[in-house]
Amino acid sequence: MNDVSPIRIIGISGSLRSRSSNTHILRAAASLAPGDMIITMYEGLGDLPLFNPDTDGDKPTAQVADLRTRLNAADGVLICTPEYAGGMPGALKNALDWIVSSGELMNKPAAAISASPSLTGGEKALESLRLTLRMLSADVADDGTVAIPLVSAKLSAEGELTDAATVLQLQLVLGALARQVRELQTREPGSL
Ligand SMILES: Cc1cc2nc3c(=O)[nH]c(=O)nc-3n(C[C@H](O)[C@H](O)[C@H](O)COP(=O)(O)O)c2cc1C
């Protein structure tokens, strides 16, 4: 009998585009997750107000409060981002700015993916995301990140992931995330 509680991961796509390749990759990751992991998509990125320290007080807007509550409730976070002009999209950075002072990602296991039609796979966006996650004191494992190049050729017209090597890469990232969560839980008695 397995009485270990499931690992709850919140998945965030850095793209607001309806046919986003990054959202497709995130959904593929959700379907590839190990049996003890549940990945739930965060859909509120585009509804967040622009970050303003003046309004970053005890009474945040409903959208900001919702983001913070969801992150608090999760055991970890999986972010999949496009690269815009050599960095992560403003919408994603905006969301992360809202949790600098509230600290929901502090010591929280996190994995980061970038996907791009380019040859680089959006590695600069991944680098900027990793830097921001480090500033937020999130716990990103060395094997918890991957840049996916030429992503358009790896997705079907319906957005299904068709590339076996990318499937393997996603499984490795998910395995690293699961390992981090379980390690953290063994350091926090009673959390399993
Ligand atoms: C304004 C803009 C800037 C972009 N800059 C980059 C870039 O710096 N590097 C890159 O690899 N792709 C860049 N792209 C291409 C995106 O990687 C591509 O549109 C990708 O499909 C976006 O991700 P999504 O499919 O998840 O929405 C850019 C696209 C746009 C619209």
Automatic annotation (TrEMBL):
* Claim: Amino-acid biosynthesis is one of the keywords in the record: no
Ranges for domain NADPH-dependent FMN reductase-like? 8-149
Q: Source organism's superkingdom?
A: Bacteria
Where does the record place a coiled coil?
A: none
Keyword Oxidoreductase annotated: yes
Q: Keywords for this entry? A: Oxidoreductase
Looking at the UniProt record for this protein, which Gene Ontology cellular component terms does it annotate, in alphabetical order? cytosol
Q: Which InterPro entries match?
A: FMN_Rdtase-like_dom, NAD(P)H-dep_reductase
User: What PANTHER family has UniProt attached to this entry?
Assistant: CHROMATE REDUCTASE, NAD(P)H-DEPENDENT FMN REDUCTASE LOT6
What is the protein's given name?
Answer: NAD(P)H-dependent FMN reductase
Species for this entry: Paenibacillus solanacearum
